[in-house]
Amino acid sequence: xxxxxxxxxxxxxxxxxxxxxxxxxxxxxxxxxxxxxxxxxxxxxxxxxxxxxxxxxxxxxxxxxxxxxxxxxxxxxxxxxxxxxxxxxxxxxxxxxxxxxxxxxxxxxxxxx
Length: 113
Fold this sequence. Notes:
Layout: E1 13-14, E2 21-22, E3 28-29, E4 34-35, H1 37-53, H2 62-80, H3 85-108
Antiparallel strand pairs: 1-2, 3-4
């Protein structure tokens, strides 16, 4: 396989996202695999989001608490302002569902003592 940017160079591997061959100059190992120049910046931008969604044991309750609080706030706004009832009720319900799902996912990741 050849590098897609430098066809005269042998590829050291393929980009994990697009599958294009990359040489040592074009490829970047980001800890989750090899990425081409086009995708390595995207991986840098998305890494904090991906690690936050991982729900590591120390912060597994953060997401359910935040989403739960947002859901309750939206439902409280729905009760206070009649003209926004359907929208804020829907938003509140979605946040509460996300809180429940993230809590359930976090339960599975608890460390075993």
